[in-house]
């Protein structure tokens, strides 16, 4: 797990580390610069020409100190400071003075096309205004050049809080940041502008990061959080998942949810749907149990969790079924697709003590909140928090970068997945995976986070084999076994 920070949170980490713990700022800068230089040296050839472009803040100090380290290692490096040096931070002036005492002078007239690599450190995550003037000119020239670009902390012009472009922004091939990723690294379009992200340790202790961070993300180490399997077990040990899904024209939604739940490790999956879907589902997926809508009450007593909504359509019948689930259900509930649309269409209130997970895409979230999809997109974290608070549950806000939000808990920013997953049925697959984890006893937040992360990893694996354009929802399901197969779970007698 990595902590994810916003601008003010990172400033608070800096302040506590320097002022209260006593780690000198120049020590942090030197360690950061060493990490930057080493990352560049992994790729840059000695024959390459490098330009270090610094702003007047400490981000620029990192860029200048990294330039000095590269010069010491024999690389060909020029440097320049954008802005008034007289107004620069004290630490940047220190780095600038060291370079001049070593006999190096900043380059004033620059042909950006004359370099193979540009190390860019004009602005850090604290930027809150649009880039203008000479800074905008420099950003444009960097982007127009043939050089590859590495940014310090975050590409200049990207908001560290939202990932938005503040007027204009550097398009980096790689970014080196410190302590933990920032929200702007993981949300689009910042995620695309950052290129490959390197997160380096330079002296920010985990206890300080944890204290201030309002978010987190997972990496492959967190797959160990998935529930294990036991030698002394049976199908009931791994959860009984009830899926209420699919109308006469949407059997595929029920199929995708059910198959993904089984692939994720569920012991038993029962689909409640219309009678017309019985032969389709039982021929395509003979492992699934089947019942009709008349059997809902009995199925609610049988199950360990409930998934309601994929492919049901919005109708009075769907509303009545959902009301029955809300009244009689005693196990965790996941509302997806037409379950959510039914809530918004009929203005239903959700008060479900057993735990509720909502998995809306942007338009579904907009309907639930009574705002536009553009307003949801404008501030994903705020929209997710409003959903979690209003429905007293866990909100999985699905976008190119999915968020998971639960009241009074840190926000999860997903780092897995790709644009090949933007295909029909992908959301049904995700809901089935989360339901599987709920059925196996995980809490709502943890099941949602792990389900989202594994779903993205499966999509990444499928893309490696098939490419982005050719992926289908069924390919994501098939790739789940490859993801889970990489986990070593010891059997417990």
From TrEMBL:
Gene3D superfamilies: 3.40.1190.20, YjeF N-terminal domain (3.40.50.10260). (6S)-NADPHX binds at residues 58-62, 124-130, 135, 153, 253, 311, 361, 428. K(+) binds at residues 59, 156. It catalyses: (6R)-NADHX = (6S)-NADHX; (6S)-NADHX + ADP = AMP + phosphate + NADH + H(+); (6R)-NADPHX = (6S)-NADPHX; (6S)-NADPHX + ADP = AMP + phosphate + NADPH + H(+). AMP binds at residues 398-402, 427. Signal peptide: none annotated. The keyword NAD applies. Its EC number is 4.2.1.136, 5.1.99.6. Its cofactor is Mg(2+); K(+). Keywords: ATP-binding, Isomerase, Lyase, Metal-binding, Multifunctional enzyme, NAD, NADP, Nucleotide-binding, Potassium. Residues 218-487 form the YjeF C-terminal domain. InterPro entries: Carbohydrate_kinase_pred_CS, CARKD, Nnr, Ribokinase-like, YjeF_N_dom, YjeF_N_dom_sf. Binds 1 potassium ion per subunit. The keyword Metal-binding applies. Catalyzes the epimerization of the S- and R-forms of NAD(P)HX, a damaged form of NAD(P)H that is a result of enzymatic or heat-dependent hydration. This is a prerequisite for the S-specific NAD(P)H-hydrate dehydratase to allow the repair of both epimers of NAD(P)HX. Bifunctional enzyme that catalyzes the epimerization of the S- and R-forms of NAD(P)HX and the dehydration of the S-form of NAD(P)HX at the expense of ADP, which is converted to AMP. This allows the repair of both epimers of NAD(P)HX, a damaged form of NAD(P)H that is a result of enzymatic or heat-dependent hydration. Homotetramer. This is Bifunctional NAD(P)H-hydrate repair enzyme. It comes from Anaerostipes hominis (ex Liu et al. 2021). The lineage of its organism: Bacteria, Bacillati, Bacillota, Clostridia, Lachnospirales. The gene is nnrE.
